[in-house]
């Protein structure tokens, strides 16, 4: 698991001080609410993925433009709860070890299906970048012949995913499904998403793109796998689940996990890897949901997830509010000014991410914002980046005020095992 | 509450030297004056030398040009762990150095520019809008050392591109240095409630994170990328392998980080001594002129030596996090390397 090294003496003192004051919320209550919200979010992700599964079944049974659109809509809806779970990744080993199967990105999509000529072939980094398993029932992988005549969840999960140790070989999860529904986005930094025709799933000589039956088989296998992966993670956070047990089992480590998720997602992952790099490279391939042009929503719901953890509340897909004891309660008890600062920074970030979302929904899509020399787009995206970076500094202050600053957040493998230091 | 608790914590650990608060200020002053400001001054000086070299020596294989590039590369490596303040504004650090590049953006961007004979190389303002992957020192390495670029476009165009990159580096290093001199050095030396840092502790934490980031990047990226896994070593992912500098980068980084470690542990002679000994060991492991680009990672004995080097750098980070951190009352916080 990601390293969590605690300055135990500091923590012991902090806990003692908090307990001496009757007004403090207990860490246990905060963690229980955190776990309850995790369960609600993964369960919502599961429920919406099942709706997607039904839509995929309908598309494969009766291929039509309407059924393809319905499947796309189901995918978009499924992303809303899932993106809000991303804040659980860093800090919770159970999630971090698992999420690569579900939300890995970016992908060399030529592994899966046909791509345009501009895509190119195998690269220095990835010999399988243009494998196209849908068109090839057998292929060789690291010297072995692979039988892919049946495209099954086991093939995707066990053989194709991260094949040859290359992370860009993403064979499973939301983004593989996204590619199968939308296809490549060939519009560069112009407006427009992928434009796959429903006939890519059609039977007989109506079929376009070749191997329509195998494409349908792939889509079905990937969707089934997503559903079973989400069933697993929902159970992890249910009563008796291991992820819940880990968080509740050590209160200080649990609070650290919450803050690690907030800080690592805000700074290194979202502000850096996902948003800033895209602007600096002017590269639409750096879009998080590049096939569907749904990136504005991905960023927005990632940010909302961070705010959810601090405020201890989440609105479910049926409108129900899950809420309870929060980090905000813990912090305001120690330092009310810092709590106000933290809440204000989170709100500022959500406003900035909201601007990206509203502009995109009004027709100024995220890939246009990335275009070279597009100052308005750059300002929108950098507004989000700056908000995320700024809130990370306040998260570090929260760590200090809660007496948790002897912690290693995201460390090297050697630091994952503190005992090794004393060998 | 934290202020009340801290002495108690230190008393328990038995690590608080008398007058540590006053010494934190000295540590910050010494680091800013002796390392950060001279580092960015040197970077800018080397950028000017590089631009001057491109003005008279523009052939990719020209030894003077390559020397000037190598000089600036070293100067950058010596500040590359300072991932805060002016270098982080507007993506300036990426515009100087875009690496690692797992999706081959540099090659793609350069190929596009050379194929299109992109006219933006003629105008600094327009060239500043080009993808960072094609604008920095790592892009220059492709142009100076990779034969694949030696005959693309025309010699005149390649020369114009090399000069545009060099002039951009002068500009970027100048604004970073200017911001440090005008504002950031003062903010670090005199933290206030409204500044980037509110207290000496926050400033110290920033420097502490910088050392941690540099060690982590050296272990996981500079050494870790070519190591790959035992079953799948990745020698082609080594940093600056085209110019045979992969191992040299590790040495330059460790030399600079050892100075920063000495500065930050000035109040704790025992920890400083452990740092010094471990840095010496790491630099000893790093010295292997027979394997400049970590090509040996795919054979057993060579790989073992590189793994030993990596472990040595990881031990340095353990000293930082497990010993200096608690002794100074700071935690590691978040850095740009978090995430995937």
What does this structure look like?
The complex is a heterodimer of chains A (423) and B (340). The two termini of chain A are 20 Å apart. Chain A has helices spanning 8-20, 27-61, 65-85, 93-103, 153-160, 174-182, 212-237, 242-249, 251-281, 295-311, 327-334, 336-361, 366-369, 375-401, and strands spanning 138-141, 144-147, 313-315, 321-323. Chain A has 14 helices and four strands. In chain A, strand 3 and strand 4 form a beta hairpin. By secondary structure, chain A is mainly α. In chain A, the strands form two sheets. A two-stranded antiparallel ribbon of chain A has the order 1-2. In chain A, strands 3-4 form a two-stranded antiparallel ribbon. Chain B has 340 residues and is mainly α. Chain B has helices at residues 2-13, 20-56, 63-77, 92-96, 105-116, 124-127, 137-145, 155-189, 200-227, 246-264, 269-286, 300-328. In chain B, helix 2 (20-56) packs across helix 9 (200-227), helix 2 (20-56) runs antiparallel to helix 10 and helix 11 (269-286) packs antiparallel against helix 12. The chains are: A mainly alpha (423), B mainly alpha (340). At the A-B interface, helix 1, helix 9 and helix 14 of A face helix 1, helix 9 and helix 12 of B.
Q: What would the average pLDDT of chain B be, to the nearest integer?
A: 91
First-to-last CA distance of chain A: 20 Å
The main sheet of chain A comes to: 2 strands, antiparallel
Fraction in beta strands of chain B = under 5%
| SSE pattern of chain B, N- to C-terminal | HHHHHHHHHHHH
Strand count of chain B: 0
End-to-end C-alpha gap of chain B: 35 Å
What is the H/E order of chain A?
HHHHEEHHHHHHEEHHHH
* Biggest interface, CB < 8 A: A-B, 60 and 53 residues
Fraction in beta strands of chain A: under 5%
The average pLDDT score of chain A comes to 89
């Amino acid at each position: 698991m990601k390293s969590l090294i605690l300055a135990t003496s500091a923590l012991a003192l902090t806990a003692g001080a908090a307990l001496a004051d009757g007004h403090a919320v207990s860490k246990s209550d905060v963690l229980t609410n955190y776990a309850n919200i995790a369960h609600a979010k993964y369960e919502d992700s599961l429920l919406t993925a099942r709706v997607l599964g039904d839509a995929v079944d309908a598309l494969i049974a009766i291929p039509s433009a309407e059924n393809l659109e319905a499947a796309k809509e189901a995918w978009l809806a499924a992303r809303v709860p899932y993106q809000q779970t991303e804040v659980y990744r860093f800090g919770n080993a159970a999630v971090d070890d698992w999420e690569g199967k579900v939300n890995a990105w970016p992908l060399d999509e030529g592994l899966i299906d046909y791509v345009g000529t501009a895509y190119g072939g195998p690269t220095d980094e990835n010999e399988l970048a243009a494998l196209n398993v849908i068109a090839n029932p057998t292929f060789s992988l690291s010297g072995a012949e692979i039988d892919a005549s049946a495209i099954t969840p086991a093939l995707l999960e066990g053989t194709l995913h991260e094949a040859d140790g290359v992370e860009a070989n993403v064979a499973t999860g939301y983004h593989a499904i996204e590619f199968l529904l939308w296809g490549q986005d060939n519009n560069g930094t112009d407006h427009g998403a992928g434009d796959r025709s429903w006939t890519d799933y059609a039977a007989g000589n109506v079929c376009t793109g070749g191997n329509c039956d195998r494409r349908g088989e792939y889509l079905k296998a990937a969707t089934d796998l997503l559903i079973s992966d989400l069933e697993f993670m929902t159970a992890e956070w249910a009563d008796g689940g291991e992820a819940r047990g880990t968080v509740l089992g050590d209160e200080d480590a649990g609070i650290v996990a919450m803050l690690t998720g907030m800080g690592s997602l805000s700074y290194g992952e979202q502000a850096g890897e996902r948003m800033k790099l895209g602007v600096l490279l002017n590269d639409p391939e750096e879009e998080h949901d590049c096939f569907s042009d749904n990136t504005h929503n991905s960023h927005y719901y990632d940010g909302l997830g961070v705010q959810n953890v601090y405020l201890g509340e989440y609105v479910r897909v049926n409108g129900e509010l899950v809420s309870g004891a929060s980090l905000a309660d813990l912090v305001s008890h120690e330092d009310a000014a810092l709590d106000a600062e933290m809440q204000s920074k989170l709100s500022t970030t959500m406003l900035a991410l909201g601007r990206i979302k509203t502009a995109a929904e009004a027709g100024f899509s995220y890939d246009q914002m990335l275009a070279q020399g597009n100052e308005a787009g750059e300002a929108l995206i950098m507004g989000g980046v700056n908000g995320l970076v700024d809130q990370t500094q306040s998260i570090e202050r929260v760590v200090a005020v809660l007496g948790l600053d002897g912690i290693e957040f995201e460390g090297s493998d050697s630091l994952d095992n503190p005992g090794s230091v004393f060998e | 509450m934290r202020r009340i608790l801290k002495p108690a914590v230190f008393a328990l650990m038995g690590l608080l030297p008398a007058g540590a608060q006053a010494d934190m200020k000295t540590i910050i002053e010494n680091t800013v004056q002796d390392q950060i400001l001279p580092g960015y001054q040197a970077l800018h000086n080397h950028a000017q030398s590089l631009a001057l070299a491109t003005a008279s020596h523009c052939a990719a294989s020209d030894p003077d040009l390559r020397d000037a590039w190598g000089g600036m590369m070293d100067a950058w490596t010596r500040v590359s762990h300072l991932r805060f303040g002016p270098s982080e504004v507007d993506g300036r650090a990426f515009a100087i150095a875009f690496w690692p590049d797992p999706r081959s953006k540099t090659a793609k961007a350069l190929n596009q520019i050379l194929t299109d004979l992109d006219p933006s190389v003629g105008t600094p303002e327009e060239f500043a809008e080009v993808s960072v992957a094609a604008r920095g020192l790592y892009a220059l390495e492709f142009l100076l050392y990779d034969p694949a670029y030696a005959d693309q476009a025309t010699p005149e165009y390649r020369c114009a591109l090399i000069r545009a990159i060099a002039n951009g580096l002068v500009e970027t290093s100048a604004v970073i240095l200017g911001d440090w001199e005008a504002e950031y050095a003062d903010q670090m030396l005199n933290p206030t409630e409204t500044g980037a840092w509110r207290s000496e502790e926050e400033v110290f934490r920033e420097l502490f994170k910088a050392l941690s980031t540099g060690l982590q990047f050296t272990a996981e990226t500079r050494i870790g990328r070519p190591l790959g896994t035992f079953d799948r070593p990745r020698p082609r992912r080594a940093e600056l392998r085209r110019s045979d500098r992969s191992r040299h980068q590790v040495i330059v980084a460790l030399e600079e980080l050892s100075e920063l470690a000495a500065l930050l542990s000035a109040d704790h002679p025992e920890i400083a001594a452990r740092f010094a000994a471990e840095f010496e060991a790491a630099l000893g492991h790093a010295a292997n002129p027979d394997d400049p680009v970590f090509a040996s990672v795919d054979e057993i004995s060579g790989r073992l030596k590189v793994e030993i080097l990596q472990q040595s750098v990881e031990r340095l980070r353990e000293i930082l996090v497990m010993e200096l951190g608690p002794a100074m009352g700071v935690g590691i916080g978040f850095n740009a390397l978090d995430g995937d």
